Amino acid sequence: MDPQPSTSSQSLSPRKKRPRVALSVTEKVMIQNVYKHVFEEKAATLLPFETPEKQECVSKTADILGIGVTSVYSVLKEYKENEQFKSPEKRGPKHNFKDKLDDFTFTAIRRKVHQFFYANEPPTIAKVLKVVNEDTDLPNFSWSTLRKIMKHLNFKYATKSRQSILIDRQDIILWRQRYLRQIKEYRREGRYIYYQDETWINEGHAPKKAWIDQTVLSSRQAFLDGLTTGLKQPSGKGKRLIIGHIGGEEGFVEDSLLIFESVKNKDDYHQEMYADAFEKWFSEVLPKLKPNSVVVIDNAPYHSRKLESFPTMSWTKSRIQEWLTSKNISFETTMIKATLIEIVRQHKHQHGEKFVVDEMAAQHGITVLRLPPYHCELNPIELVWAQAKGYVARKNKTFKMQEVKKLFEEGLNLVTAEKWKSCVSHVIKEEEKMYGLDHIIDNISDRFIINVTESDSDDFVSEDEDE
Q: Where, if anywhere, are coiled coils annotated (predicted)?
């Protein structure tokens, strides 16, 4: 006779519970039917005057289906109250902070951090959070969200004596210094500088603040008193216009306005501009620019399509070999793909990345200069956009796309060469101020930072450390 297996040697793993998700109508019906079956099965073993305990039946139902008892109770309660089941509400796609915020907000937050440096005070997340949330023109953030934003804006933590401070990443500092030196040199050479950018405006664009009569509490009261309920307000943001333009100290480049209506349900206007469309517009603008001039642009993806792609591990081995051969780079046919990619990396700097836009400009004797990420304050066209949008906000009464487009064009026409020159002068002062910023950061870092290693400085500290 075979020995009976011991229960200890064959201990059963507990049934895994399904993750908590919204239940469909079919699932709810199944839960109800299983509960009913368990209840009736239990009742059959009891005397006629006895009733099965609900808690016991619920627990067994949950065990059979691998769900929580809370879900079973919830389904039974829903059916008891409504005598039917409702389908779960459909949820839209999840959006993170990058989908909800625009470049102007990111730039404003970055400037808040730099204000601490200008005041010779080391910034922390807690300090930045306070000043950002106190600014009525900016959204309110939680500590954790602001921390993610700081990382997105290329800030890093540097360890100091008792806590950590936020500083720009080294590559951003180098980019900013390189840009400031380069544009200063171009001005010294007497080269004309154009500034290019894109923006957007909603058909519901209106002033953020307005005077209201607080004594009017209802439309009925307003009617009886011969008053109004105030200015008509848009029901929402509405559709969106995407705008692009280019100009300099002498004003806008003539007949170079790019304007079109946004695709519905797009969160970011950058997603609606693509390289082909921008390059087509840019090719039409280039012949209108002064010889040997400079065009300042940002780092949007559609500005930075590469003229040539460099090999990666996703390439086939034969394709990598063909690329190396075309560049007269020697290799052995017996080498594995990883070794070939390493050779590519070693020679990559000799075949620097070239962008389509840069090459297009070079054919016309024009230089493209790229702004550091989220440095909108170094582009005077941002001030121009603000003037045009302010005009729309003051004049917008219908909140219709056709009217908004007309008003925006009128607003642009009011930005004269004199106003453009004033905006450029303002930016030159910002450049001088920012050039000194990195020296301030160096001084603060020298005073506070101790024992920083490369690995420490690249990672964000925990919440406790920053508190």
A: none
Give residue for tokens 């809370």: 70
Per DSSP, the chain holds a count of helices (H) and strands (E) of 18, 8
Residues 289 and 320 in one domain: yes
| Cα end-to-end span (Å), the chain | 69
Residues 430 and 456 in one domain: no
> For 399-450, how does the pLDDT look when each residue is reduced to its tens digit (9 = 90+)?
888 899 999 999 999 999 999 999 999 999 999 988 888 778 777 766 654 4
Same domain as 232, residue 108 = no
The token pair at 454 is 């490369």
386 in the same domain as 268: yes
Give the residue from 372, 381, 376 showing the smallest Cα distance to 299.
372
Q: Residue 146 sits in a domain of what CATH number?
A: 1.10.10
Together in a domain, 224 and 266: yes
Q: Tokens in use for 227?
A: 């008053």
Q: Give the torsion sign (CA, 138, 139, 140, 143).
A: negative
Asked if 242 and 266 count as a contact pair (C-beta separation under 8 A), the reply is no
What predicted TM-score, i.e. pTM, was given to this entire model?
0.64
Question: Do 240 and 344 sit in the same domain of this protein?
Answer: yes
Report the domain count for the chain. Answer: 3
Domain assignment present for residue 245? The answer is yes
Asked if the model's pLDDT at residue 219 lies above 70, the reply is no
Q: Which tokens sit at 360?
A: 């297009």
pLDDT in tens, 73-87: 988 888 888 777 777
| Beta bridge pairs of residue 449 | 160
| Strand 193-202, strand 294-297: pairing | parallel
